[in-house]
Write a structure and sequence with these properties.
CATH architecture of the largest domain: Alpha-Beta Complex
CATH superfamily of the largest domain: DHBP synthase
Strand order of the largest sheet: 1-8-2-3-7-4-6-5-9-10
Structural class: alpha/beta
Radius of gyration: 21 Å
Shape: globular
Number of domains: 2
Number of helices: 12
Strand content: 15-25%
Helix content: 25-40%
Distance between the termini: 51 Å
Largest sheet: 10 strands, mixed
Length: 361
């Protein structure tokens, strides 16, 4: 017998209010019941929606992997309500993690530290470290407080697919695989947290995200290293952080990031391919001349990296609904400020065989 679709419960907490409204508290209480029973709850954060389970319950966490179709080598981020809860999950607490937590939590930054004995192997892909984050979303922190347990919560979508930034995205991707969805509205940041390995000296960014290296270096009072080259997609070894697969964040529609997007779009249209084009140059004459083309959907994208990141996944979700043959994305600036966006787009891009329309020579 097929499982029913999950209920979607709206939650809100007006900024001026000391406590959430009664209906939101009731929704959180229901979520607590699901989590304590070993179920899965989709929760909003400032980055993306997470698929949450009790991080200390190995069988509940296994449900996350089954629902997402996630490989066992890909560890999970554990969400805590405060630094004290994080300390209880770590085997030791490096100075860099302490500085980041004191300066930047709650916020979109995850610290990788030695794991403590309470963390099940499945959470860390049997590795020696655990990734911990205190989200900057007070309703989710309140849920963690009410549950009294840390929550393992990767993005609430099928593995390798585009991360969800609305409750509707969660329902579309996971359907009945999730037991309950808490709808906190669109996510403010739009891409996943920055992940910092605090077991190294200097600490190293494993995954770029909304928290810049400049802010991290200010917090730790010293240098922070950038990540090495992307992990190969064929690697079977446990990863140190989520978000390191070569293919990730990918829409169903093949995505291409050519050096000359105007030429690529024209070649695809000439080949009879329906195209969605994410461009930061919609006002340029060459782009405007194509605007009325029948089989072309042009989406103007923001000029700033923070605004671009906030709309990135929502735009990819929307274009995936248009029955397109290809999504073309303009290259974004090769600057540090754009590094997180470039990382997500590079992992979402689909390699093109040489015979494909618009493929590079």
């Amino acid at each position: 017998m097929a499982r029913p679709l999950p209920d979607i419960l709206k939650i809100q907490w007006p900024p001026a209010a000391d406590r959430p409204p009664a209906d939101t508290e009731a929704a959180l209480d229901r979520a607590v019941g699901v989590l304590r029973a070993g179920g899965l709850v989709a929760v909003p954060t400032e980055t993306v929606y997470g698929l949450a389970a009790d991080a200390l319950d190995a069988e509940a966490v296994a449900g996350i992997f089954r629902a997402k179709g996630r490989p066992a080598t890909n560890p999970l981020i554990v969400h805590v309500c405060d630094a004290d809860m994080a300390h209880g999950l770590a085997g030791s607490w490096p100075q860099a993690a302490d500085s980041i937590a004191k300066s930047l939590w709650p916020g979109p930054v995850t610290v990788v530290v030695p794991r403590g004995p309470a963390i099940p192997d499945i959470v860390t892909a049997s590795g020696p470290t655990v990734a911990l984050r205190c989200p900057d979303h007070r309703l989710t922190r309140r849920l963690i407080e009410k549950t009294g347990r840390p929550l393992a919560a990767p993005s609430a979508n099928r593995s390798e697919a585009v991360s969800p930034t609305t409750a509707a995205h969660v329902l579309e991707s996971l359907g009945s695989r999730v037991d309950l969805i808490l709808d906190g509205g669109p996510c403010g940041r739009g891409i996943e947290s920055t992940v910092v390995d605090c077991t190294e000296n200097p600490p190293r960014i494993l995954r770029p995200g909304p928290m810049s290296r400049e802010l991290l270096e200010s917090a730790v009072g010293g240098p922070v290293a950038w990540p090495e080259d992307r992990c190969p997609a064929t690697s079977a070894a446990p990863l140190r952080s989520p978000g390191l697969q070569s293919k990730h964040y990918a829409p169903r529609t093949p995505l291409d990031m050519p050096a000359d997007p105007v030429d690529r779009v024209c070649r695809l249209l000439d080949a009879g391919v329906r195209v969605g084009w994410m461009t930061r140059a919609s006002a340029e004459p060459r782009v405007r001349r194509l605007a009325a083309t029948r089989d072309l959907v042009i989406v103007p994208m923001p000029e700033t990296p923070a605004d671009y990141a906030r709309l990135l996944y929502a735009t990819l979700h929307a274009l995936d609904q248009r029955e397109l043959g290809r999504i073309v994305v303009d290259p974004v600036p090769a600057t540090e400020a754009w590094r997180a966006v470039r990382d997500r787009l590079a992992r979402a891009a689909t390699p093109l065989p040489p015979e494909s329309p618009g493929a590079p020579p």
